[in-house]
Design goal:
The protein is an alpha+beta fold and 448 residues long. It folds into three domains: 2-238, no CATH class; 249-390, Immunoglobulin-like, CATH 2.60.40; 416-447. Helix content is 19%, strand content 27%. A hairpin with a 3-residue loop joins β5 and β6. The chain is elongated. The N and C termini lie far apart (66 Å). The relative contact order is 0.12.
Length: 448
């Protein structure tokens, strides 16, 4: 629900931007380096949608995903204003633009279709001129919507069905038709069947770029700053396009995870641990390529109470690849032996990648290093985060809730019946006072 509200809010601001926006360019003010989309991969979805539909996948930098993850968490915690204030803005979001060409990117008709109108108009937004006329064709993807910046890999479908009006365009408003952006020998068009391109005979070329938008109010004026990355590397589909090669286990290195820690969150009464995932370039490239071809790479997390022999798959742990914090609720560790999982329970955790590919069996990477941590008291003013160490040894079994024989309150008593001796003293005093009050009350009634 919170994500839905956020999307609605951003959409409303985009509409407002068309009327009051001020455009600027100062890349140094973004909280990350403005690099173009990486590992861009495109596939043709002829059998799944319209005859021309393409699917593009691309990856964000680790710094981008870390920032948007931090923003998402701050939104949940109600501290997003403080986070964005560090960058002098009240909001920041992203979209992407996709440029395309058929057969020759330099061709004056079917080459790259980017024009100055892709950069937006301060009164009307992307794709419009100063008089509010749409100056881009239906296939010109000038605004692919709000991307999910928290995930390393994103995707878009584009070049889909086109209406007859969009195919013909509108000369009066100077809106180009698709027939004005293709050469006659490159396509077939039928009013009933629509448009088709034989990609066994033709090649489609694509490039994409990021657009980041910031919003702030100065002197009662809404200011929207647009930041454009460079265009990505060009990719091709069709006659001259690169052919997809399935991945094998040797293409999957074991996950690199660090910094296992207990969070202050819980899930259905069970604590939630977190760890940091590092996303190397090779992993991002493979995950992006698979995403474009109806596959993907996910991360599987297993955990156990330190001392147990069996690893348990944490089915509700974070599984989408993203640089930074990954959460893992421990509810699946509950069993006959472990009725509860307390925050002072020592946990071991490991991960591996699962690679899914269309019409092929899944493959798995080797396991990561095993992480564990030393625990301290939780919940007090002096709470400290446990130090994380890599540990492949499995020492003695540690029973949840009984990892320390000393009393956690006074640190020296044997805890009779599980309670600190000082708590027992308080209980005894309360009982004595209650008895005295009852006796006195009874004597007063007898006198009356």
């Amino acid at each position: 629900m919170k994500k839905l509200i956020s999307i609605v809010f951003v959409c409303a601001m985009l509409i407002s931007c068309m009327a009051t926006g001020v455009f600027a360019e100062d890349k140094d003010k973004l909280p990350f380096e403005l690099v173009p989309p990486a590992n861009v991969t495109v596939s043709w979805l002829e059998s799944n949608d319209s005859p021309t539909t393409m699917k593009m996948a691309y990856s964000l930098s680790n710094d981008m995903t870390k920032f948007f993850k931090e923003k998402e968490e701050a939104s949940i915690e109600g501290t997003v204003d403080e986070l964005l204030a560090k960058y002098g803005v009240e909001d920041l979001w992203m979209t992407t633009q996709i440029d395309w060409a058929i057969d020759d990117v330099e061709d004056e008709v079917s080459g790259w279709h980017y024009t100055k109108y892709w950069d937006g108009n301060q009164n009307y937004g992307f794709g419009y001129d100063e008089e509010g006329r749409c100056r881009v064709g239906e296939w010109d993807a000038v605004d692919m919507g709000i991307g999910n910046g928290t995930e390393t890999v994103n995707e878009h479908w584009f070049l889909r069905w086109v209406s007859e009006d969009a195919f013909n365009g509108n000369p009066d408003t100077k809106t180009p038709g698709l027939k004005d952006q293709l050469r006659p020998d490159q396509y077939k068009y039928d009013e009933e069947e629509g448009l088709s391109i034989d990609f066994d005979k033709h090649t489609a070329y694509f490039r994409t770029r990021f657009v980041f938008v910031t919003y702030k109010v100065t002197d009662d004026e809404s200011v929207y700053n647009y930041y454009y990355s460079d265009w990505s590397d060009t990719v091709a589909v069709g006659k001259e396009g690169e052919k997809f090669e399935p991945l094998t286990k040797k293409d999957l290195a074991a996950p690199v995870i660090t910094d296992l820690r207990m969070t202050d969150r819980d899930f259905n009464g069970c604590p939630v641990v977190a760890f940091t995932l590092t996303v190397p370039d090779e992993l991002a490239a493979n995950a992006t390529k698979l995403e474009a071809y109806d596959g993907g790479i996910a991360i599987e997390t297993e955990a156990r109470v330190k001392g147990d022999s069996e690893w348990i798959l944490m089915q509700n742990a974070d599984w989408i690849i993203k640089a930074g914090e990954m959460e893992c609720p421990l509810i699946h560790l509950l069993n006959d032996e472990h009725k509860t999982i307390d925050k002072d329970t020592e946990i071991e955790l490991r991960c591996r990648y699962r690679c899914s590919q269309s019409e092929l069996d899944d493959i798995w990477s080797d396991y990561s290093e095993v992480l564990t941590f030393a625990t301290t008291e939780f919940g007090g003013e002096d709470e400290t985060v446990p130090d994380t160490t890599a540990d492949t040894e499995t020492p003695e079994v540690i029973t949840p809730g009984a990892t320390d024989d000393k009393c956690p309150i006074c640190h020296f008593c044997p805890r009779p019946l599980g309670l600190c001796i000082f708590i027992w003293l308080v209980i005894i005093v309360v009982i004595v006072i209650a008895v005295i009050i009852i006796i006195k009350s009874k004597k007063k009634k007898e006198k009356k």
